[in-house]
Amino acid sequence: MNEVIRSLRERRSIRKFKPDMVPREKIEAIMETGLYAASGRGQQKPIVIAVTDKALRDRLSKANCEIGGWEAGFDPFYGAPVVLIVLAPRDWPTYIYDGSLLMGQLMQAAHAEGLGSCWIHRAKEEFELDIGREILKKLGLEGDYEGIGHCVIGYPVEIPEAAPRKEGRVYWLTGEE
Question: Which H helix or E strand runs over 117?
């Protein structure tokens, strides 16, 4: 089997991470790879923010937990020490699709670097709150950005087995009917 196809099939969402920080070089490589994701008209509109500061990471986790309605103390980032936040400008017609492709590419790049990842929702809601606006202001980012998702990354405690693929999800139109 082709190495790329094998990698695509082997990547899993990780929900339990070791606390060890990922080296900056690996984070940079993952982010750079994500930026090569396809985008509408090749405009490359989505952006990625890397959060490695534990205090800010924990504030984001707390906000995400409150938005999600979980009990206080639950970590929706599953202990991952790195949070890559994907945002895209709302005024671009394909912003959600472009940001989603970038998210997928970040997760695959993390897997290729020997790390675990998981897509965590509620970035949209976080960036409608003060914490999100503070982050954008601190970075000097202006514009109407919407949070697409968080790609949490780190060293996995365990890698789950793949669930069997559901039947009946592929259809063909061959002209031979």
Answer: strand 116-120
